[in-house]
Automatic annotation (TrEMBL):
UniProt family annotation: Belongs to the multicopper oxidase family.
Record protein name field: Copper-containing nitrite reductase
Alphabetical list of Pfam families matching this protein: Cu-oxidase, Cu-oxidase_3, Cytochrom_C
UniProt pathway: Nitrogen metabolism; nitrate reduction (denitrification); dinitrogen from nitrate: step 2/4
Necessary cofactors: Cu(+); FAD; Cu(2+)
Enzyme Commission code: 1.7.2.1
Database matches in NCBIfam families: Cu_nitrite_red (TIGR02376)
GO MF: copper ion binding; electron transfer activity; heme binding; nitrite reductase (NO-forming) activity
Amino acid sequence: MSRMVSTVLAAASMLALAACSGKPAADAALSATAAPAPLPATVDFGPPQGAPVHAVLTSPPNVPPPIHRNYPAKVIVELEVIEKEMPISEGVTYTYWTFGGTVPGSFIRVRQGDTVEFHLKNNPGNKMPHNIDLHGVTGPGGGAASSFTAPGHESQFTFKALNQGVYVYHCATAPVGMHIANGMYGLILVEPPEGMPKVDHEYYVMQGDFYTTGKYREKGHQPFDMDKAIDEKPTYVLFNGHEGALTGDKALTARVGETVRLFVGNGGPNLVSSFHVIGEIFDTVRQEGGTVEQHNVQTTLIPSGGAAMVEFRTQVPGSYVLVDHSIFRAFNKGAMAILKVSGPEDKSIYSGKEVDSVYLGDRAGPNLHAVSTAAKANAAGTLSKDDQVAAGRQLFTGTCSVCHQANGEGLPGVFPPLAKSSLIAQLIKEDRNRLIGIPVHGLTGKVTVNGTEYDSVMPPMTQLTDDEVANLLTYVLNSWGNPGGQVTKDEVAKVRAQPAPAAATEH
Ligand SMILES: [Cu+2]
């Protein structure tokens, strides 16, 4: 890091000197760039030396250890493509195509000047042919043409890592967009010859957009939706391929006072990421994975098929939320991860409390286990009221609790109570569909709850699926002194299909 800084400073002072000598600015810039650089970006360090080395590959969010080698070697990389079904969200599965069994694929780390002997295997159980295009390769297709591999086969090609930086790799088999959308991307780090400055933690985080036929969090197995992908309308935008891959008990961790380096990639296939960590300022960013260092950055743009290196020192304990600051993607499509920093507080830097449900929503809890349990029971036809109540309780946080409060008491004069609500008791007996319609269609106009009149607006919760609404209402009905009962997914579907009732005028 310090070498980079001094190179940049040296170049800047040369510019300043040249400018003082009275030359025109353009000339000065030219002579500055024409000066022999101490270490050009592209270097051939000569033939590989020593015995061949097998590259250590890691699954996200882990990064292979630093290389600590002072000569170029022949490095053997063996990567296997595996097509497999995995959860994309709680109770939702998706058929991923992976490099090494994970999304993003295995992290590869080599040293600038290394000669990489790349072996790409296509698992015999797979159905599709695949290949690999590494952005760190100099040569046509980045390896794609040399690595086309049918299921049950292996291909091999060799390249020299001429440029340092962090690079995306991805599958480039037609239809390319579909292979990438199914999770076929990862990162390769080409370390500078002198290595990277030492930090306490290195993590591997990669964003990707996903396209399923069902809506966000719609339960069951969800196939890829080519039309949504072409229209660039993702159902999910995720860090590390799965909703919750880096939240709850899977959050990234650090201690107060430690340095963290994130290798953040964006596989796309379509979206550009506005990468931001809520409550942190990046001390250093190597934008686009290149060699220029930028400092004091709030949000860094990561193009599709690009990557960045982001560094900061932690100072205050608590949960830091990694998001794509195109913020609907974070709260309504899943683009959220957490860095949990533990250690002593420093009230001189920050006095406040831990980030709560405002940012974390239903991710504030350790996991959404009850939601997936309910989804499984639903699929098996064994869904019980208890399953629904447990799932509804987890979903209530961050969905309804922002207004009606975690204890259902509401806010006097602003949000009516759901606890012991006279309106809920009345509707569940006399007009079930109208009650079910409240979260689905919203509620406007005068309502009286427990003797107090409200004339406000509850927006429709159209982001919720039918079973989420059913679970939320079942939870509300069975909590805080309400009369009990159960609402089914099918009932919600019927109410959703009907037009919203006109604003109520009675009560
Ligand atoms: Cu592929």
